[in-house]
Structures are given as C-alpha cells and as structure tokens.
Amino acid sequence: MIGYVSIGLLALLSLSIPVGIVLFLLGFGVDTFFSPFPLIRGLGNMVWSTSNNATLIAIPFFVMLGEILVRSGVAARTYAALDKWISWLPGGLVHANVATATMFSATSGSSVATAATVATVAMPQAEKLGYDPKLFSGAIAAGGTLGIMIPPSINLIVYGFLTQTSIPQLFLAGLVPGVGLAVAFIVITALICVIRPELGGERRTFPLAEMLRALVHLIPIILLFTVIIGTIYKGWATPTEAAAVGVAGAVAIAAVFGGVSVTMFYESILGTVKITSMIMLVVLGASFLNFTLASAGLGNELRQFLDGLGLTPLMTIFVIVGIYIVLGFFIETLSLMVVTIPIIVPLVVEMGYDPIWFGILMIVLIEMALITPPVGLNLYVVQGARQSGTMSDVMLGAIPYVVAMLLMAAALIAFPQIALYLPGALQ
C-alpha cells in the first residue's frame, strides 16, 4: 500500500493539482481500494472536528502579523538597519539577508513569507553592488527557512496540534536550534567569502552615529518578538491570544512609522486569506488521508517494515531521517509534515524518544526540503523575486546551507539537549 500511495502522490503532484486536493483524492483512493469499510460517510464529521480547534486560529493571526509588517514597509527599514551593522563581515550584504530573515522569522511564522519578504527587499541590491547571484540568492532562500523554526512558527503549531504536544514547549525547543542555524549560515557565508572574496561583493562600514540611529528600526521588531513569546511563557496568553496581541503590535509599529493605509490593510487581509486557505486545505486533506491510511492499516504495515529491518532505535532514527530527506525532494513541506506525523511520531515515541525533540529534528529536515529541488518552495520564491537568471543559480547557491542543516540534524541526534535544555530549564 505504501508504494501505491507514493506513486499516486507523485503522479497527481506532477499534474500540478493543488496539494490539498491531491491529499483528498488519495484519501478517496485508499478508502475505495484498501479500507475494509467505507469511510466517506465520516468525511463531514472528520473535516469539522479537525477545523473546529481553537489552536488553529493562531495560524491566520501569525500570517496577518507578517503581512502587515511587509506591506507597511517595516521589512525594508529593518533590512537597511541590519545592513549598516553587519556588512563589514566577509560577504557583506549577504549577512544582512540572513539576519533580516532571522528577525522576521521571529514574527511571521512562515518560511515562504520570510523568503518573499527578504527577496523583495534585497535582490535589487545584488546587481547594483556586484554580488555573486548564486550565493546572494541562496542565502535568502536558506534564511527564509528559519521562519518555521524560530518561534512563533506555524509549522510547530501544526505539529503540536497533530501530536497533542505543548506548543509553548515546542517554541522554546526551536529557539536555540533556530538561532544556531542562523549563526551557522553566517559562518559558512564568511568562510566562503574568505576563500573566494569576489563572491561577497563590497564590505562596507558606516559611521557609529549612523549605526546607532539605525537601531530605531530594529527595536520595534525585537519588542514585538519579546511581547509575543513573553506572554506565552509567562502564562498570560495562549499562542492564539499572543498571535492576536502580535497583530495589534504590528499595526501599532506600522502606525508609528507611517505605514498604515487602507491599501495596506486590504493587501494584508487578502494575503492572509490566501495563505490561510491554502494551509487549511492541506491540513484538512491530510487529516482525511491519515484517517483512511490508519483505517487501512498503514501504521501497522510501516511498523512491521521498520521492525523487520532489525535496527537499533538510533539506526531507525537515521532511516527516518533518510526517508524525510528523500520525500522532501518531491512533497511540499507542510503536506509532508501532516501526512507523516500521525504515522512516524507514534513509532518514535514508542522507541523512547521525546516528541518535542523529534519535532525540532523534523523541522530541520523540513527546512532542508524548502531549498532542495525540484519542489523547494523557497527556491521558486527567490527566483520569482530575481526576475532574471536561471533557477540553477539559486539551487547551487543553497547547497552550502543544506550542508549546515545536515550538520544541525546530526548535532540534534548526538546532543538532544540542544532542543530540550530550554523547555526543561523553564518548565
């Protein structure tokens, strides 16, 4: 059955059918050919029970928060400020790409939105200042992936919802690996530009007074992140309530800097509706597919397959990592999560691993899928913003950052406390 479902998934995706529809079609197919009794009668109840959950309300709020910051011009000012502070490093403005992505990851919760934000602001600078298009665009694509690791993260909310795991604990667990990846991206960029200085463009320095004035545009984002995460960990608000507070804070920041207008609100709401609709269609379709797969016995089939390999728990984790890397080449990231979580996570927990730790490991692998062809969404987002050159440039530029993600995945397996220290210390 696993083979038939995989072939069906790839075939339908190759026809450019929307992912959410593909998941529903696969669910109907599994129900028809593999399930011992008809499940279509329970479709309405399943869709209602999945969507009728207060936790999921956080998703449109976090999407809107990011949309407001982008549409109001806060992103452009943040990028310019970071440029003044870190363009003296080998690689120059490339580091501002990663740093800006890191800061917006701490508010938007979406990798694609983060990549689109930074690409729109940064790409015009690449040709003007003589940067290598491969490295410059690859850094933006990789930096954008931090949106699903650094809290608040929409993908971590979905993981917590599907596994009934504490979302605040997941947010804490993602903080150190997320910042660690950002630092790793900066270090790798600097090393590349030390070896090949011509790739990094001009290293620029600015007067201290100008750098200090630029801090005005960084403080609001830092305060917004502190308010969102602080209210969650202090117990003053749930993730959903904190997301609503974040939207109000984003509007206030936009108002202070003169970015509020009817057009801004209209575009932000429209963007929020589009992105949220896509996410919910994928979640509902995956829930129905998971329902039919579980009824058809896929969980037992996969468990028997892994048990038949005769591997230790650690070796089984490596097999699972390999499965996610391969599937990440072909399946959109949110879909990959919601399809595999109900099958893989129970097996991992049964082997004695912490579900919070595995959630962070999974997110690293999902991040990798965002910048690996042929379905790496961030690659297409950055290429769309470039409006010139070839997709291969972006793909090649992302390779060093894929290596950094592999190293982070290995570090998480070797040292689980990278993810578990903060949740344990602040529990």
From TrEMBL:
| Pfam families noted in UniProt | DctM
Question: What is one term from the GO cellular component aspect held by the record?
Answer: plasma membrane
Q: Does the keyword Mitochondrion apply?
A: no
Q: What is its main location?
A: membrane
Q: Which superkingdom is the protein from?
A: Bacteria
Matches recorded under InterPro entries: DctM, TRAP_DctM
* Keywords noted in UniProt: Cell inner membrane, Cell membrane, Membrane, Transmembrane, Transmembrane helix, Transport
- Cellular compartments annotated: Cell inner membrane
Membrane-spanning regions, if any? 7-30, 50-70, 135-158, 170-195, 215-236, 242-266, 278-297, 317-349, 356-381, 401-422
UniProt keyword Transmembrane helix, yes or no:
yes
Q: How does it assemble?
A: The complex comprises the extracytoplasmic solute receptor protein and the two transmembrane proteins.
Q: In which family does this protein belong, per the annotation?
A: Belongs to the TRAP transporter large permease family.
Q: What does this protein do?
A: Part of the tripartite ATP-independent periplasmic (TRAP) transport system.
Record-given protein name:
TRAP transporter large permease protein
Native source species: Roseovarius bejariae
